[in-house]
Amino acid sequence: MKIGIVGAGAMGSFFGGHLKRGGHDVTLIDTWQDHIDAINAHGLEICKDGETMQIMIPACRPDAVQDTKDLILVMVKSFHTEVALQGVRGLIGPDTVIMTLQNGIGHTEKISEFTRSANIIHGITTYPADLEGPGHVSSTGQGTIKMMTADGKDRPMLGEVRQAFADGGLECEIAPDVSVAIWEKLAFNAAMNGLTSILNINVGQLGDTDMGRDLSKAIVAEVAGVALKKQIPVQQKRILSTMDMAFREHREHLPSMYKDIKSQKPTEVEAIHGAAVRAGKESGMSLPVCETVYRMVRIISGKYNIS
C-alpha cells in the first residue's frame, strides 16, 4: 500500500514508522526541516518499551511529493487540517482513502472538502507517543486504533487499512460504533488536557486531589451528556475508568495542550472544548465547567498571542 503521513509529529512518525516496518511504501510529509533532514540522513528512531528501532523511511515537505497515494493518514493538529490537505491535494486520487485519527471532533467535515465521504475513515487511537527531537520518537505501553468509514458503511478498504496496521505490529479494530469512542475520547481529553494546562500540573497531580478529580468528572459528565443527547451511547463509567487508569499509570504524562502552551504554540482547544460547547448549544445544553476551561485556555493563549 502506498501511504502518505500528513503531519510527521510524534503520532504521525510513530504510525509511519510502524507501517513502513510492516513492508508498506510510506512517506512522511511535514514542514519541520530539521526533522526531515534527520530522518533522511539517519532514519527514524522509535524507542518503544526499551526496544529501539531505526527505520529507513523517506521524509519530505509537501511540495516534494508527486504520486497519488492509496492511503493518506492525517495527523496534523486540527487547526492545520485544511491547509495541510491543500498542500498535498495532488496526492489525492479518485480512490485515495483519507484517514483521520486527530483529537477532537469536526475533522470529517473538513476532509470532505477534498474527497467524497465514502473515501473517508475516522477514528481514534490510544497509542502514546512523544517527539524527543528531530528524527526521534518514543512510546511506552499498549494502545489500539478504532476506525470506521465516515458514512458508516463497511467497505473492503477498511480491511486493507486494518491489515496494513497489523503488518506493522499495531492493533487496529473496525468499529461500527466508532462515534462512541470518538466522543468518549473527547470527554477524556476535555478533562485531562484543559485542566493540566490551566493548573500547570501533570496527570498524576490532577488526580491526587479530590477537587481535581471532581472537576475532571464534571467535565466528563457535561461532554457525555451532549453525546447522549445526540443518541451516541457513551458510557461515563468507562470514561472515568480510563481516567483512573491514567491517574495511576500515566502520572508523569503532560498532555499535548499543556506542551503546546508551554511552547507558546496554538492549541487544539477549539476542536476539543470549543467543539463540545458548540455541540451542546446546538442541542440546547450548557456546559458551564467545560466552557470555563475553554475560556481560560483561550485567555492563556491570548497572553502568548497564540490564539
Report on the structure:
Helices cover 47% and strands 17% of the residues. The chain is an alpha/beta fold and 307 residues long. Helix 6 runs antiparallel to helix 8 (210-229), helix 6 crosses helix 9 (236-249) and helix 6 (178-199) packs across helix 12. The longest helix has 22 residues, at 178-199. The model has no long low-confidence stretch (mean pLDDT 96).
Major sheet strand order: 5-2-1-6-7-8-11-12
Q: Percent of residues in helical segments?
A: 40-55%
Question: How many DSSP-defined strands?
Answer: 12
* Portion in beta strands: 15-25%
Radius of gyration: 19 Å
Average pLDDT figure: 96
Order of helices and strands: EHEHEEEEHEHEEEEHEHHHHHHH
Indicate the topology.
Elements: E1 2-6, H1 10-21, E2 25-29, H2 33-42, E3 44-48, E4 51-55, E5 59-60, E6 71-74, H3 81-87, E7 97-100, H4 107-111, E8 120-125, E9 130-133, E10 136-139, E11 145-149, H5 156-167, E12 172-174, H6 178-199, H7 203-207, H8 210-229, H9 236-249, H10 256-262, H11 270-282, H12 288-303
Parallel strand pairs: 1-2, 1-6, 2-5, 3-10, 6-7, 7-8, 11-12
Antiparallel strand pairs: 3-4, 8-11, 9-10
